[in-house]
Amino acid sequence: MKYLLKSAAVVLSFTLLATAQSGKVERLLQQGQAALDAGEIRQAVADFQQARQLSPESLEANRGLVLSYLQAGALREAAEVGAQAVARWPQDPQILHWLGLVYFKGGQNARAQELLEQSAKLDNNHADVHFDLALVLLAQEQYAPASQELEQATKLDSSNSLAHVLLGRAYQNTNRTLQAIEEFRTALRLDPKTPLGHYHLGFAYSSLGRSDEAITEFEKEVKQGTSNPQVYYQFGHCLLETGNLTAAVESLRKSLQLDPNNGDAAYDLGKASLLDGNLDLAAVSLRKAISLKPQDPSPHYQLSRVFERQGKTEDAKLERQRFLEIKKSQPETGGMATGRVQ
Predict the structure, then answer these.
(1) Which of 122, 167, 118, 161 is nearest to 143 (CA)?
(2) CATH 1.25.40.10 region(s) of the chain?
(3) May I ask the CATH class of domain 40-123?
């Protein structure tokens, strides 16, 4: 009888201990989630680590720890815990999603794509999975499948302005410019300050030869305080095309300040400066373009024009000769000319 009472006491003791531990795990999970929501990532990591130590078989603890590591930028730890969790719960779409993002941020795009595709297949009704899969596809320049994922993402959540911008980019890169324009417009209706929304709309207009509309959009992007050199380059390029030389020079100079290695911006600045009568700036810019893109014949042609204007006949002759040599060495394209307009 004493033995039975002792055994019952041991069982009760273990039951109470398990109940207390379960309650502690639940509190840690709640604290970890609250810390994540508040952006207190280090605290979230600590809470989920402790919860997982107390209950290694807790799916929520493993999910939370992988996500916390991911947000903390601890990719090695996130990958390790995530791989163990996927082995334990191979059909859990959230674990697959988080681990896919871990690999994406680590530059392992093929593995990331595989996991995100599995996640989307298991649960097709989460916009963020389709959105993140599209990011991976865009990073690999797989624009057609990326557009399909973004179409699904915007169908599930039509309020995500960035998803519409990315869908527009995917359309633009698959020769569906009119559809791209509609997506960019939708994004800007949702949020006029969507990052690069006006830029991408302007680029789409520019690709259709609608320069005035493009310039309007580029101006809006610039007024939002962008530091993206491509915005200033495309803005300056459009201004040059429409003959607004002073503004073109200003914008192209800004582009080169932000990205000194943009050979196209250097070329356009040289051409705009030549047309605007600033021969010294034109010469400096075109020499820079030549150094950045030595196989491009066009800067040599423009530099020969600068030297002609400066009365440097021999220098002009040498540049014109160099232009012809490089142009002749390039393969024939056939059909309509595809070279840069001189």
Answers:
(1) 167
(2) 40-123, 226-329
(3) mainly alpha
pLDDT at res. 19:
52
Q: What is the 3-state secondary structure (H, E, C) of the chain?
A: CHHHHHHHHHHHHHHHHHHHHHHHHHHHHHHHHHHHHCCCHHHHHHHHHHHHHHCCCCHHHHHHHHHHHHHHCCHHHHHHHHHHHHHHCCCCHHHHHHHHHHHHHCCCHHHHHHHHHHHHHHCCCCHHHHHHHHHHHHHCCCHHHHHHHHHHHHHHCCCCHHHHHHHHHHHHCCCCHHHHHHHHHHHHHHCCCCCCHHHHHHHHHHHCCCHHHHHHHHHHHHHCCCCCHHHHHHHHHHHHHCCCHHHHHHHHHHHHHHCCCCHHHHHHHHHHHHHHCCHHHHHHHHHHHHHHCCCCCHHHHHHHHHHHHHCCHHHHHHHHHHHHHHHHHCCCCCCCCCCCCC
Q: What is the pTM of this model?
A: 0.85
With CA atoms as reference, report the closest residue to 285 among 297, 298, 273, 301.
273
Q: Is the dihedral of CA 98, 104, 107, 112 positive or negative?
A: positive
- Amino acid, res. 21: Q
Q: What is the pLDDT of residues 208-257, one digit of tens each?
A: 999 999 999 999 999 999 999 999 999 999 999 999 999 999 999 999 99
Instruction: Give backbone dihedrals phi and psi of 91, rounded to 5 degrees, phi first.
Output: -105, 15
Beta carbons of 191 and 197 less than 8 angstroms apart = yes
**CATH no., domain 226-329:** 1.25.40.10
